[in-house]
Design a protein that fits this description.
Number of helices: 4
Oligomer: single chain
Strand content: under 5%
Structural class: mainly alpha
Order of helices and strands: HHHH
Helix content: over 70%
Shape: globular
Radius of gyration: 12 Å
């Protein structure tokens, strides 16, 4: 990942987490979807997506994300 992409990733992720911690789940989900388009198959983003979905009561969708996380990084759950 180039430095400019790395900086974009970090700043976007921080903005998403800030929204999540403020319980603005829909806004954080929308921003996260856009970031996942740029950084597909990133297990960290998928894990956060699962947490956001779970916080909205979307448990089956969240479970799908958490399963995807373990497929992308089998050691993540350890």
């Amino acid at each position: 990942m180039s430095n400019s992409l790395n900086d974009e990733y970090k700043s976007s992720l921080q903005a998403i987490l800030d929204l999540f911690y403020q319980k603005w789940f829909v806004d954080s989900e929308n921003k996260l979807k856009n970031l996942i388009i740029k950084f597909s198959n990133d297990f960290t983003l998928e894990n956060i997506y699962g947490a956001i979905l779970s916080s909205q009561g979307k448990y089956e969708e969240a479970l799908e994300k958490f399963i995807k996380v373990t497929k992308l990084n089998p050691t993540f759950a350890e």
